[in-house]
Write a structure and sequence with these properties.
- By secondary structure, the protein is mainly α.
- It has one domain.
- The chain is about 55% helix and about 0% strand.
- The protein is flat and about 40 Å long.
Length: about 140
């Protein structure tokens, strides 16, 4: 352990998932690594937030808190986008946001186990179908 700012207060090493989260910027916007089709990268192990939730069983652990915050922010972003797509139908917007959030999680998990050529490869087409159906 080092010290912060040259003082004698010990610096705790943050879990990797929290360091990556901070690197994403203050607005928490998703980058290329947050898109489901990225499962083709060598060493891809899935969503860092899902992995952190699995590794740290304590619901009060900072990594679990970061994972919850990320999932909440992702769902909120999807919900705002869905509301713009179907402003006259709040129930349809909420359903679409939930469906897309589950699709993203499933694509990450599936790509880890079955690779980019597995069922996760259909994720983008499925997302388009969900959006098209909601917009009708």
């Amino acid at each position: 352990m080092g010290t912060e700012g040259g003082g004698d207060r010990p610096r705790r090493r943050r879990p990797a998932v929290l360091r990556r989260r901070r690197a994403r910027g203050r607005h928490g916007r998703a980058g290329p690594r947050d898109r489901p089709g990225q499962g083709h990268r060598p060493g891809f192990r899935g969503c860092a937030f899902n992995n952190a939730s699995i590794e740290y069983a304590d619901p009060d652990h900072p990594a679990r808190s970061a994972a919850r915050d990320y999932r909440t922010a992702l769902h909120d972003r999807l919900h705002r986008l869905a509301e713009r797509l179907v402003p006259a139908n709040p129930a349809a917007a909420a359903a679409l946001a939930g469906q897309l959030a589950v699709l993203i999680d499933g694509a990450y998990t599936n790509a880890v186990h079955l690779g980019p050529g597995g069922p996760a490869a259909t994720g983008l087409a499925l997302a388009h179908e969900l959006v098209d159906r909601a917009a009708r």
